[in-house]
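Q: Please design a sequence for this.
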């Protein structure tokens, strides 16, 4: 039977690595971004706990059911596939201490393909490369999570309330905070459906239009992180959609801050989402947190959004506005929409390609938010963008390079406007050249400063030894 073996080293004691793996957020954190995995149940590290998820195999979405066995806390756990796409999959995770502050995980997998006597010869190009990329991604993710957690190990764990926890950023942020040992509670509306792997996690239910708390209590949180809002690029814009984009941000933010002022034990810190759309369409102008606002729809929305949360600062709550750039991950957002045309060889310059894309990796989006949460001196506006913004043409070229596809077929601006209307102008043809000046001055060190390493990691195209 084929065996796959992998050894990963960590600059952390073995008990810290085990604790990370045994957290509720661990499974979502180690999912490769490009695989399209949908978690349904994340079993804890105890015998007979079950993990269930759906995987992507072309157009198919088969269920994978794994059962834990042979668990020795701090030392080893095994999971065996009881249902899934392989003929057999039995995976041992062995945790090995290599020093007071270092450790390794030794992964050993016994596996077979379906109809293995007929299909085993395909393994070098159907299984081996995919597993190499998966374990390379997992190793880097765990190493970096442990490193970021250790930076603030001397500071108390917090009780954190997160709105927008079912969104692209919110799901990863909650998983990371859980892996870091914080108590995470989700702020949801009555109509919110939690992802299946988080369906049993604690929530506060509220009416975001009136501020009424329907279930649970808002008292006693150390930090509130507010990320909720209707998707900007989800649907074609019309007057109704634009009104929803604005009011889904301004009204809940205002209601939340007013609620803070009525609490006996309000939060110490309020982190509120915003966006680099605040700056409008600015061409090649270099922008930082001191730059003036723009005057288009997205700029006016961001201005109103930030103004809606201003009362929190006036009430003495440490308040941070996070002006986020283009979050670069195949799990959603702009990159997800660009993948298919790029793979088909049609990922060239859009509208000339001279407009700047101020991007940020999902890793840095999460770690920067954590840095702002855990650093008491951070207050006010921070741009969450990588230090090296690129033009749209450069973005397309690098993406084509990583995916080994040409990137010269242009998409004229008028064609994009015909297809997507006003949304195309705001999200594709306009641009901002934004720098994270205050974030770097506060001591934050980026995981991904350059676009190509970011794309290689999140798309499973890392250059391996």
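A: Design:
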């Amino acid at each position: 039977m084929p065996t796959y073996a992998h050894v990963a080293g960590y600059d952390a004691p073995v008990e810290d690595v085990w604790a990370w793996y045994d957290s509720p957020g661990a499974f979502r954190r180690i999912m490769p971004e490009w695989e399209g995995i949908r978690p349904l149940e994340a079993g804890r590290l105890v015998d007979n706990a079950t993990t269930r998820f759906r995987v992507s195999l072309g157009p198919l979405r088969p269920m994978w059911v794994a059962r834990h066995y042979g668990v020795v806390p701090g030392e080893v756990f095994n999971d065996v596939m009881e249902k899934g796409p392989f003929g057999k999959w039995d995976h041992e995770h062995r945790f090995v201490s290599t020093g007071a502050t270092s450790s390794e995980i030794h992964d050993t997998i016994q596996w077979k393909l379906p109809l293995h006597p007929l299909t085993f010869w395909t393994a070098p190009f159907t299984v081996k490369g995919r597993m190499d990329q998966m374990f390379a991604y997992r190793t880097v993710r765990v190493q970096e999570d442990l490193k970021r957690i250790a930076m603030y190990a001397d500071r108390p764990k917090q009780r954190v309330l997160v709105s927008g926890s079912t969104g692209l950023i919110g799901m990863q942020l909650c998983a990371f905070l859980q892996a870091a040992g914080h108590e995470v509670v989700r702020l949801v509306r009555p109509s919110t459906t939690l992802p299946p792997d988080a369906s049993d996690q604690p929530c506060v239910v509220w009416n975001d239009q009136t501020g009424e708390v329907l279930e649970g209590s808002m008292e006693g949180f150390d930090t509130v992180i507010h990320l909720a809002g209707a998707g900007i690029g989800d649907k074609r814009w019309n007057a109704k959609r634009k009104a929803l984009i604005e009011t889904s941000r301004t009204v809940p933010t205002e209601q939340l801050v007013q609620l803070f002022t009525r609490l006996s034990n309000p939060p110490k810190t309020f982190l509120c989402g915003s966006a680099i759309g605040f700056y409008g369409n600015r061409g090649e102008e270099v922008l930082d947190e001191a730059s003036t606002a723009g005057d288009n729809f997205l700029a006016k929305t961001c201005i109103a959004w930030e103004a809606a949360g201003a009362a929190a600062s006036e009430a003495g709550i440490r308040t941070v506005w996070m002006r986020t750039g283009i979050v670069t991950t195949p799990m959603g957002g702009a990159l997800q929409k660009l993948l298919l045309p790029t793979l088909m060889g049609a990922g060239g310059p859009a509208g000339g390609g001279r407009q700047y894309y101020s991007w940020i990796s999902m890793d840095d989006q999460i770690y920067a938010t954590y840095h702002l949460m855990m650093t008491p001196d951070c207050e006010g506006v921070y741009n969450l963008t990588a230090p090296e913004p690129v033009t749209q043409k450069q973005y397309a070229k690098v993406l084509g390079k990583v995916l080994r596809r040409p990137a010269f077929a242009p998409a004229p601006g008028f064609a994009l406007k015909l297809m997507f209307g006003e949304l195309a102008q705001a999200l594709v043809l306009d641009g901002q050249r934004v720098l994270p000046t205050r974030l770097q001055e506060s001591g934050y060190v980026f995981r991904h400063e350059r676009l190509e390493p970011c794309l290689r990691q999140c798309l499973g195209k890392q250059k391996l030894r």
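Q: Thanks. Anything notable?
A: The mean pLDDT is 93. The chain has two domains: 3-151, 159-458.
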